[in-house]
Design goal:
The protein has 327 residues and is α/β, with parallel strands linked by helices. 44% of the residues lie in helices and 13% in strands. β1, α2 and β2 form a beta-alpha-beta unit. It is globular, with a radius of gyration of 20 Å.
């Protein structure tokens, strides 16, 4: 989507004002996906702001889009309060299951929460440049959402296939942007960032994604009564079944949602490695969030601390890079 000449000129003037008032090059921040690990973006952003390194351009995918949107609308503290207030029980209350649609969760309860804080914002009217990345169903096109409703853009960007139903914007059915551009460095560069900082939440321990040769087959573990039990007319049993589908079973077997999210994360990790190699950012911040499960949204405090810790380690390098670019 191409911006109009008047809006483009306005944004150019904003970039020039940034250069004049701060005496530094324009900073672009690319925030990736990562489901529950995405809370780490809050810690990264707070550390950058505390150090006086305010990003001028923010491009986000999935949870990165949510955190980035809250930064550019000055709602980051509200997002942190929401995240750190989550428990397993409260998280479950936000999951409005939808067995007759194209996603396990309709997302209406989460949409209501987003609407409460962000419904008044149109992307093109934001103080700072912002883009949410989504994927078009059918074509696989990478779609940069840089106009219109901020809430709709976020819903499209984090619409995990199979979990949340797709979102229709301007006749296109859109899903999670992590399927095509997990860490949108390219978006920041296209929007004119001189220094691009990427936050990568998909990188794991050394050796992740290796090939295992000659793996011995293991006998199948018989299904337990808990696994085969149907909900029937007992509402409590139905709730327990849904809980197992989301959080997994007591014997360690992953639930349906965990399987889908982990599969997406594996794909995202492989794509991110390839894209970062072809278009590397100037600085990479990599919070060590691999110990946090993709659906463990109740561990927000831990993720935020890991994000802040990783960002603080890079503050000196970021300032050095800015001085070099300004010379």
């Amino acid at each position: 989507m191409v911006l109009g000449r008047r809006k483009t000129c306005g944004r150019l003037r904003h970039r020039l004002r940034v250069m004049v008032h701060t005496g530094r090059p324009t900073i672009g921040l690319a925030l990736g996906g990562g489901a529950a690990r995405g809370w780490a973006h809050i810690g990264v952003l707070k550390s950058l702001v505390s150090a006086g390194l305010l990003p001028d351009i923010v491009a986000g995918t999935s949870m990165g889009a949510v955190a980035g949107a809250c930064y550019v609308t000055e709602r980051l503290n509200a997002l942190e309060d929401f995240a750190t207030g989550l428990t397993r029980r409260r998280l479950f209350s936000f999951l409005d299951f939808n067995f007759g649609g194209s996603g396990l969760i309709s997302g209406q309860r989460l949409s209501t929460r987003l609407e409460h804080h962000l419904r008044q914002f149109e992307i093109e009217r934001l103080e700072r440049k912002f883009v949410a990345v989504a994927t078009e169903l059918g074509t696989g096109h990478e779609v940069w959402l840089n106009k219109g409703s901020l809430v709709d853009a976020l819903k499209a960007s984090f619409a995990l296939p199979g979990i949340f139903r797709p979102v229709q914007i301007n006749g296109r059915w859109l899903i999670d942007g992590a399927l095509v551009n997990p860490i949108p460095v390219s978006v920041c560069r296209a929007l004119g960032a001189r220094l691009v900082i990427a936050v990568n939440l998909t990188g794991g321990p050394f050796g992740k994604g290796a090939v295992i040769h000659d793996h011995e087959a293991i006998a199948k573990i018989p299904a337990t009564a808990e696994e085969t039990e149907l909900p029937g007319s007992n509402g409590r049993a139905a709730v327990h079944l849904l809980h197992r589908q989301i959080f997994g079973r007591s014997n360690g077997a992953p639930g349906m949602s965990a399987v889908m999210m982990d599969a997406i994360n594996i794909t995202q990790d492989r794509i991110a490695r390839s894209r970062l190699a072809g278009d590397p950012p100037d600085i990479i911040i990599g919070p060590k969030t691999s110990g946090i499960g993709l659906f463990e949204f109740h561990r927000a405090r831990e993720a935020i601390e890991l994000g802040a810790e990783a960002a603080e380690k890079q503050i000196g390098e970021i300032k050095t890079a800015l001085r070099t670019l300004a010379d």
